[in-house]
Amino acid sequence: MHELRRIVSYLGQYRRDAVLGMLLVVIESAFEMVIPILMADIIDIGVTNRDLDYIAGQGLLMGACALAALITGLLYARFAARAAYGLGAHLRAAEYQKVQGFSFANLDHFETSSLVTRMTTDVTVIQNALNAGFRPMVRGPVMLIIGFAFAFYLNAELALVFCGVVPVMAVAIYLIVKHVSPLYGVLQATVDKLNDVVQEMLTAVRAVKAYVRGDFECEEFRRVNEGLAATSEQTFRLAVLNMPVLYVSMYTATTLIMWFGGQMILGGALQVGELTGFLSYVMQILNSLIMISNVFLLLTRSLASVHRIFEVLDEPIDLTSPDHAIMHVADGSIVFDDVSFKYRADAEKNVLEHISLAIPAGSTIGILGGTGSGKTTLVQLIPRLYDATAGRVCVGGVDVRAYDLAALRDAVAIVLQKNVLFSGTVRDNLRWGDAKASDEELLAACRQARVDEFLDRLPGGLDYDLGQGGVNVSGGQKQRLCIARALLKHPKIIIFDDSTSAVDMTTDAQIRAALAELTDVTKIIIAQRVNSVEGADMIVVLDDGRISAAGTHEELLATSEIYREIYTSQQYGADKGGER
């Protein structure tokens, strides 16, 4: 119930529509429940006394009640739809905004496909539950209460007969709901798995075709799809049991009432009109119970979705700006002061251990190391994408935890190891670096990143549509576009995380020469090739999360065995390649 109350709070300005819809359902139900009494009076008074005027008058009242019920029902539909779809829009917006505030650690708690399902399918389930269940949720209890009141008013003895059937129905509904409730959570988790398979296949469709793995992917999809079908079948096989139970109870109650009612008519204790009206109320009461049971099933499924949505909304964001945060980064100097880091508090081993390093503003730093040595993790601590587990990281002479997050990250540009471009034109993507950049500024950044070498060949130049995820350009072209986008931020610190691995040696050298002209920017270059960093002011060699050595190219050749091995192997590989 607490989660349902929280969901209601997201109605916002649509709360008025929900209240009006509820009021209209009550009025509609009241009008409908008057009709059986009018019908009973027509039979017992009008037909018995052959009073046509009375019959006509009561008939007009019945017609007026039916028309009023129709009008209020139509008005309800309008207000209910606004409330349902307004709630869905607010929930999606709240989830999306929450995810935007997630740190990398928060995002590690959720699969991408699961977040997509929670923002789409789960919200749709709640939306449909409100749209389809709002009317019966209000109408069912109202009809039940009014129906029982009028049934006792017409004949208390027959009402007692009916009361004997109701507990049986209630127990049956309770047992069904109890067993179905946990299955809805399993069902939504299975939808997550299906979305995960589809997303992975579509993202890697070129690799699938290149390795001729289409049959394998089809088999994987078939397995997950059949699992979803089996889970759905099991869930809804139990869910639909409520209808046979309710209809058996309904017809049993109707048969008993007609039997006892017939006996009472023969004994003169009941009139035909009263029995007819009473049966109408019995049908209304039973229909209300059917509505209530369906509402329970809708709520049971929607509660599973509500729980999943609130898992996102209640996720504690572990990286936030402090009170009275510093809004300006003075320069690009960086200090790692005995920094250690691990991704999870319960992890046995640190990814980084006792890193102490001072980087002057405006310098160029190269970082080398084997796979898994912690290179990317180290630089992610600078813009505070993660927080150090121990020690501190300072930028511009200030602990990064004292900065406003937006201000700190605006001062640091990262060209990620995995290049990310967005749907839209070249201009749209470059302006992620500076939304107000002119075409001249865009072209200047393109020249620095050597994008100009292929930009003229793209139809439309800056207006060329890159497609979803930049599928219309090559890997090396993606890397250069990402470098140009980072340069447009005019950052104090720029980090290149192996971001020239897909470009040729000549272009790599040209990009490094252009970057060397940026004397007021601290440049950190993570690379696999020694020649990408040999001109750096300092090269840091990482080994298993620790600094193995640090110095210039010449110093490391003389003092670091690891660096010497990397250099020698690459030089040997280059020489062998040259011999061919």
Question: What shape does the CA trace take?
Answer: elongated
CATH topology term of the largest domain:
ABC transporter transmembrane region fold
Total helices: the number is: 21
CATH homology group of the largest domain: ABC transporter type 1, transmembrane domain
State the low-pLDDT regions, or none: none
Estimate the helix proportion, in percent.
55-70%
Say how many strands there are.
Answer: 10
Residue fraction in strands: 5-15%
Q: Give the neighbour order of strands across the main sheet.
A: 6-7-8-3-9-10
Gyration radius over CA = 36 Å
Mean pLDDT comes to 83
CATH architecture of the largest domain: Up-down Bundle
What's the CATH class of the largest domain, please? Mainly Alpha
Distance between the termini: 74 Å
Which structural category do the helix and sheet elements fall into?
Answer: alpha/beta
Give an overview of the whole structure.
The termini are far apart. The chain has 21 helices and 10 strands. α2 runs antiparallel to α3. It is elongated, with a radius of gyration of 36 Å. It has helices spanning 2-9, 15-49, 52-100, 104-107, 112-119, 121-154, 156-163, 166-203, 205-210, 214-239, 242-266, 272-313, 375-380, 405-410, 426-430, 439-448, 452-455, 475-487, 505-516, 553-559, 561-579; strands at 334-341, 352-359, 364-369, 390-395, 398-399, 412-415, 493-497, 522-526, 538-543, 546-551. The chain folds into 3 domains: 84-313, Up-down Bundle (ABC transporter transmembrane region fold); 329-411 and 491-580, Rossmann fold, CATH 3.40.50.300; 420-490, 3-Layer(aba) Sandwich (Rossmann fold). With 580 residues, the chain is an alpha/beta fold. Helix content is 63%, strand content 10%. The longest helix has 49 residues, at 52-100. Strands 6-7-8-3-9-10 form a 6-stranded mixed beta sheet. Strands 2-1-4-5 form a 4-stranded antiparallel beta sheet, with no helix packed on it.
